[in-house]
Amino acid sequence: MAFIIDGKAISTEIKDELKQLAAEKKAEGVEVTLAVIQVGDDPASSVYVRNKKKGCEYVGIRSLSYELPGETTQEELLSLIQELNGRRDVNGILVQLPLPSHIHEDTVIRAIDPRKDVDGFHPQSVGALCIGQKGFVSCTPAGIIQLLKRSGIEIAGKECVVLGRSNIVGKPMSLLLLRENATVTIAHSRTRNLKEVTGRADILIVAVGKPKMITREYVKEGAVVIDVGINRDENNKLCGDVDFEDVAPVCSAITPVPGGVGPMTIAMLLNNCMESVSLQS
């Protein structure tokens, strides 16, 4: 049976390290502050925002909450971001996605000062990642690198397949793996002979958004499988993009859903908040 990579335990380890750092900053007179903006009352977004606030509280980061009505205009949202960009007491700005359809997400992301872009979505942050410069890294891919490293899984020289090409997970994930000296293939819905491609992977990272799509035929024996998916199955139970019961017996290590990648995303957001202080000094 595979080793279960415990994202809850590893994220707690990271948050405890950050708690120590936050206390040291506070002793120096610096209170690290994250501004969280939510537009509308999408239930899933509300859960994510609540978890982010709880994470801040645990670590000792001050969080400012802006819960705006769904009919807020794009101009009003941009005006708030501009105000927060200019505030010296705000280190990070997070706009919870998705936004209502009348607001253009890309315009909003670009409006955030790159030095406060703790989600790592600003084109400047993405460009810095591409050319190996310092900048914020998208939280989920950064969390996956930490999961692998802190579980003692070697990345350098390994054949890695990233299944999914989104701007938030797939693309930055592939760049981070390259940075760690892996050999990387990006696969997606149009990839031919998908089982053959994924079957080569020493490390398979799955972010396709299809419940239990990946079964053991897609997985090389002894591979490490990281499941980024979060879906509901036919019984309304949380599940990933990987059929855990089917795949776990053939791989060497696997992340569960829930309790795998999810907790790491918030831990890395908090880590980005801590790093924002030095970017702004």
Fold and architecture overview:
By secondary structure, the protein is an alpha/beta fold. The protein folds into 2 domains: 29-117, Rossmann fold, CATH 3.40.50.10860; 139-262, NAD(P)-binding Rossmann-like Domain (Rossmann fold), CATH 3.40.50.720. Helix content is 41%, strand content 16%. It has helices at residues 7-27, 43-59, 74-86, 105-111, 123-130, 139-150, 170-179, 194-198, 244-247, 262-280, and strands spanning 3-4, 33-39, 62-68, 92-95, 159-163, 183-187, 203-206, 224-227, 231-232, 238-239, 253-254. The strands form 3 sheets. It has a 6-stranded parallel sheet. The longest helix has 21 residues, at 7-27. The protein is globular.
In brief, what are we looking at here?
With 281 residues, the protein is an alpha/beta fold. The chain has ten helices and eleven strands.
Characteristic terms for this protein:
single chain, 281 residues, alpha/beta, Rossmann fold, three-stranded parallel beta sheet, 41% helix
